[in-house]
Design a protein that fits this description.
heterodimer, A: about 220 residues, alpha+beta, four-stranded mixed sheet, three-stranded antiparallel sheet, 7 helices, B: about 140 residues, six-stranded antiparallel sheet, about 35% helix, about 35% strand, globular
Chain lengths: ~220, ~140
Amino acid sequence: MNFRPDELIFGVEPRILRKGVNDLDWQKPFTATHFARTIGAPRVEVIPVLDAMAQAGYLDRIECGSYQPTSRFSRLGAASVSNGLSRADADALLLRVCAKAESINAHAAPHETRIGAIVVFGSYLGDKQHLGDLDLGVQLDIPSLLLWPDSPDPTARPRYEQQSMNIASTRKALRLRKPETISLHGFDEVLRLGTPYRVIFGELREERCATNGNE
Amino acid sequence: MLRDTERRRAIDLIRRLRAARDTPTENLSTARHERLVARIAAIGTEINEIAEAAWLREFGLEQFTVLSVRPALRTWDVSFMVDTISLSQWCGIGPLHWDFRGSKLRKDGLVGALSAHVMFREAAVARRHLSGQWEALRIAMEKAA
């Protein structure tokens, strides 16, 4: 889901709405006062927004004036806010992402995370000339299994933390400082969505798809 | 912005609050200490209610509204989400000041985790609507006490 920065969603500026949604627990019911605090608006202004969201199927009204998020609610939190990009820009961006992945793999030490494969999915595979954002799935090549931080081995925790940071920085580098344009997902997430995809970098290794991208 | 009765009541409450806070607590029994703490909290709540009522009446401003405040003669401004509105006096004398506390906005304009505290008698104040538009509020300077 992509929102343009200048459009209002239920009367709310999209980044403000997304922040309000992301600060909530999507599994639990919440009150208008709670949402007012996360979104930054008086309660009286928030109630019409919540009612409109309930009418659109993002929330269910429950007793005591509370609201229960539906399965669609998380889509608001995951939405990107950008003016989108043209297909030509998306092609150029894909080339840059692949170049970055090659650079990461070339400079990675033996114990560091590498990029196993990158797939593109979503609106890029359609016919549209103007895309909302560029949806990428990444399969990381983690050299060894993550160790639990509570392992009796005294070096386990620093190694675990180092490896976690390394995975996070690898994923961050792939986004090329364009968080509103590139939407990066784990490859297992792409498989769960059951959406068509196309490999643009590396080779997929099916046996790893259950662990990669879940860091 | 405050009515005369509200101003008089607020000044009286602030004096009482100051007196309660200045009460020596070393020799107080636990029960008396608890009563003192409860009295301080009750006075603070009543001051907040007076201030919040004034802002609600004048501008429809309530808790969780996002404001940008530039106090008079200052070059800085602070944008924050209002948590409490109160009234205070410097050292218990002089004119009343509006006393806002809340959460600062981050650089991207969204509500962050850092706390904000701003006091002013006169200021350029703007409020943000959910559409992201800012609306300037015309604040009259509070009368001297």
